[in-house]
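Data card: per-record layout.
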Amino acid sequence: MNQEVESVAEPGKDERTWGMLCHLIAFSGLIVPFGAIIGPLIIWLIKKDEMPFVDDQGKESLNFQLTMFIAAIITLILCFVIIGWLIVPILIVYYLIVLVIASIKANDGIRYRYPYTIRFLK
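The structure for this 122-residue chain is written out next.
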């Protein structure tokens, strides 16, 4: 499955930087409750109309954050039947790795697609 798609028009440096920030600002969720969703949402809402690349990557970041939020809730519930405790470290490692990969790809101007993500926003 192809996880990344080359952009049609090369995004400028500002677009790439804002696209990268759409992904990186999700780390704010480690400090601010729901920051992983609110951060990308704010950047996306501010820049989506003027920067097509940020519109694309902002939606992708939001879709991933919402998917991970749902996965975290399910994992939390599964912790009551022990299996959730096995899933937690896998989920955390997966989250960190793909978030960093997405940030790097966005900075390179590549429209990254997170694997195993529900597409709420299209």
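Known properties of this structure: The chain has a mean pLDDT of 92. Strands lie at 4-5, 111-112.

See the next section for split statistics.
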